[in-house]
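batch_manifest entry 22 of 60
target: TWiK family of potassium channels protein 7
source organism: Stegodyphus mimosarum
requested by: lab member K.T.
priority: normal
notes from requester: please return tokens only, no post-processing; we will run our own comparison against the previous entry in this batch. if the run fails, retry once and flag.
--- input ---
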Amino acid sequence: MEMNRTNSMMVGMTSSRPPRKRSQRDSKCRRCCRRFTTFLFSHVGLCALVIVYSIMGAFAFRALEAPYEEQKASQVSHLRQETVRRLWEITDKLNVLYKDNWTRMVSHEVRNFQTELIAAVKDGYDGKDGGSQQWSLSGAF
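--- output ---
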């Protein structure tokens, strides 16, 4: 009876035991995960994690801010062109010999331009048109 019990235990153990290759693979995987976790929580790993996080944040911030910055520059450029057009219309419509009328109307247009430009600066316009962006990758970083 003792022999049957031992045989049945051995049969049960061998049948539920995974193949040796799988056991080695699981062991390697666990060891690799443990090493990766140890590295990740070491000083070097934490520094690397912070750097990667910062770089990803810089890319995200640049992607979010660049369209708004371009839109503001475009609006100010359009505002400038419209002001120049209106100034030309005033000059064309009025006789330049009437200096007082021309000066009054041009002063009004320049005041409107200044007001709208100040509002654009408060909204983030930095005075640079087109070419360079304030939020470059290094600026966002």
